[in-house]
Protein 1
Amino acid sequence: MSLRTGVPVAAVALAAVLLTTGTWHFASPSGFESIVPRFLGSRAFWVRASGVLELGCAVGLLIPRTRRMAGWAAAALFVVVFPANIDMAVQAWQGHGSKVIAFGRLPLQIPLVIWALYIARGNWAGVRTLWPRRAVREI
């Protein structure tokens, strides 16, 4: 797959993921509300807001003119919602909810951020600069 077709295909695939999860925020909000950290206040508000943001990113990814900006926005969104995933893992550790799902979600954020950055940058070279070769060799 060439770069010319790779980014649009990646964008459509990520848009499908975001359309699905964004829709779930409205169709079944209780599961999402339970992982919103308490200190944020109204859980229903944050679930709806993140659902709207996911749907907005999805639409942006489908429009070539807004694709790069939507890629950056999706990457930022994946980073910003990470505390909810941590809260979910803490709750599961304490016996509330599935540990498999909770701990499975934590590392999932990394490929999602990379996926969005690939779309935003338009190539893998820009994403690879996040991990300098020297640092990788030292590990």
Protein 2
Amino acid sequence: MTRLQPLFEKILLSGLSLGLAGCATAFQSARAAQASDAAATAAIRQVLTTQTAAWNRGDIPGFMEGYWKSDSLVFLGRKGPTYGWQQTLDNYKKSYPDAAAMGQLDFSGLRVTVLNPDAAQVIGRWHLARPVAGDVQGHFLLVMRRVDGKWVVAADHTNSQ
């Protein structure tokens, strides 16, 4: 055995140990990210559930609590973009003057994709059951942001069929 062989074995073992430690750290990081994504997804779904409940009781201001209360909020609908929380609220009130016009809201086919710890997108389908005014439905794409620890809709692109 040469004098370099024990040194080589130590270096090899050290390298393997570091490699395994790196793999373990990467695995732990991936698991933490999955847990964080799952928590974000659950929180985002809760925002939508709370919005649905507010809408179905005729509470547009309560529904708007799920939106970012900022002039940077953007709602993109049939009439083009609307900027700002207050303008979006005013448009909802104008378009849905009473509970009959609002109907009963249902979201389905929700697909939440967490983009980073403070941003996500949601794709889904909406349906308003309105016995008097007639049902309407369509699809939406939401950009969600975590602002001050709370998930809110920062951008809403909704279409109707």
Protein 3
Amino acid sequence: MDQDGTQRADGRVRDTTPARRMRELDRAEALRLVATVSLGRIVFTQHALPAVRPVNHLVEDGDIIIIRIHDDGALASLVAPADVPGVVVAYEADVIDPDTHLGWSVVVTGYASLVADAGEADRYAELLRPCVAQPMAGALRIRPDLVTGFRLEAEGTRPASAARGRS
């Protein structure tokens, strides 16, 4: 039996899901939360099909997501032609407690482009901790166009901004 139900004597399951609510995040709060974690998932197209890879990231200037790429990795194929703003990708990061199911999730959709400046790429190589022991071939910069997110909260909790306003 999962944690959100109990089995009754007649074999049917009674829902005992704790009262939760989903609160939408604004762009600034969503990007601030992404900056608090170092791992996420990039969604991209590979051979005309959706592909997802876990990657580490950093957030620069409050809204630019930087991830590392490897020469032989699938993400190395995301280099866009010079006459387009980049390759469309989605990036998702979250922190959701496996027991309480409380936490947050953010999805950023935008254009990924190769970091062309060697000095910048070297700086990112120092800042980004690799997930696997492969040399970094470069970095991708994701410029968000659409940022969506939500927080799963226990019913009766207030957003921090509302709580500060009532003191």
Protein 4
Amino acid sequence: MVTCWNLGIAAAAFAGGVLLDHTGPGSLPWSAPALLALALTITAAARHHGFPTRR
């Protein structure tokens, strides 16, 4: 779990740096909802995979 957390933090820092370099600080508010939607989708998929419902 710690490794996944660290990879997520590193990926977010990398994505933020790329956005700042290529489009400037004005792009961060517009990209935040898209990145949040992606994170929630991954979390939901991981939850269903890690904690399957019992039948």
